[in-house]
Write a structure and sequence with these properties.
CATH topology of the largest domain: Rossmann fold
Shape: globular
Structural class: alpha/beta
Number of helices: 10
CATH class of the largest domain: Alpha Beta
Radius of gyration: 17 Å
Distance between the termini: 8 Å
Number of domains: 2
Strand content: 15-25%
CATH superfamily of the largest domain: HAD superfamily/HAD-like
Length: about 210
C-alpha cells in the first residue's frame, strides 16, 4: 500500500536547477538600469518568495515601490523570453516522476513562478505533469490556496498528500495546507538553515525521497 496518493513538488531548487537563469536574467536587467548585480550565491538565499519579492530584495534598500515595480516588470518579461538557457532538472528528478507515474501516484508542481513561465518549464522538462504557478489572483506560497487548487484537480485530499520543497517557504506551505512535508537539501538553502526554519529532516537524494513516498 502506498503512503501517498499525490505528491506535489516545488519547482525551483527542487525539481529544476533554475538559479543560473533567474540570477543571470535579473543581473542583465539590474546592470542595464544602473543597479549593482549579485552573485549566484547571493541569489540562492533570495529566491523562493516569487519574482517581485526577489526583485525587491535584489534592489538597493529603500528603492521606491514604483521603481521596484518597473524593474520587476522588465525582469518578468525578459525571464519569460529566456527561461531555460542553462536550467536543467536535478539528476534523478525525471526518473522519480516516472517511477511515481508507474506506481499510480499523482504528481504535480506548485510554484511561485509566474504561471505561464512555470507551465512552459513544466512542459519542457516534465511533459504531462500538472503545473500550477502564480496566476496573480490566488495568494502565493506559503499560502495554501494553490496547493488546494492543485489537489482538487488531482482528486486527492491533504491527508493523502506529500509536499516536496527545498526552502522554509515550502515547509510553511506544507504546514499551512495540512499536508506532510519532505524538505530536500540539494536546492537553494543550507541544511542547518532548513532544520531551524521548519524542516523536521532534510533529504539528500531522490532515492531517500522515494523511500519516504513508497
Amino acid at each position: 500500500m502506498m503512503k501517498y496518493r499525490a505528491v506535489l513538488f516545488d519547482m525551483d531548487g527542487t525539481l529544476l536547477n533554475t538559479l543560473g537563469d533567474i540570477g543571470g536574467t535579473l543581473n542583465v536587467v539590474l546592470s542595464a538600469n544602473g543597479y549593482p548585480t549579485h552573485t549566484m550565491a547571493e541569489y540562492r538565499n533570495m529566491v523562493g518568495n516569487g519574482a517581485r519579492r526577489l526583485t525587491k530584495d535584489a534592489l538597493p534598500e529603500g528603492t521606491p515601490e514604483d521603481e521596484v515595480e518597473r524593474i520587476y516588470l522588465l525582469y518578468r518579461d525578459y525571464y519569460r523570453d529566456h527561461p531555460c538557457s542553462v536550467t536543467e532538472p536535478y539528476p534523478g528528478a525525471v526518473e522519480l516522476l516516472e517511477t511515481l507515474r508507474k506506481n499510480g501516484i499523482a504528481a504535480a508542481v506548485v510554484s511561485n513562478k509566474p504561471d505561464a513561465t512555470a507551465k512552459e518549464l513544466g512542459e519542457t522538462f516534465f511533459p504531462g505533469v500538472l503545473t500550477v504557478g502564480d496566476d496573480g489572483v490566488h495568494p502565493r506560497k506559503p499560502a495554501p490556496d494553490n496547493v488546494y487548487r492543485t489537489l482538487e484537480q488531482l482528486g486527492a485530499t491533504p491527508a493523502e498528500t506529500l509536499y516536496v520543497g527545498d526552502s522554509e517557504v515550502d515547509a510553511a506551505t506544507a504546514h499551512n495546507a495540512g499536508v506532510d512535508a519532505a524538505i530536500v537539501g540539494w536546492g537553494y538553502r543550507d541544511r542547518d538553515f532548513l532544520l531551524t526554519h521548519g524542516a523536521a529532516e532534510v533529504l539528500e537524494s531522490f532515492d531517500q525521497l522515494l523511500e519516504k513516498i513508497i
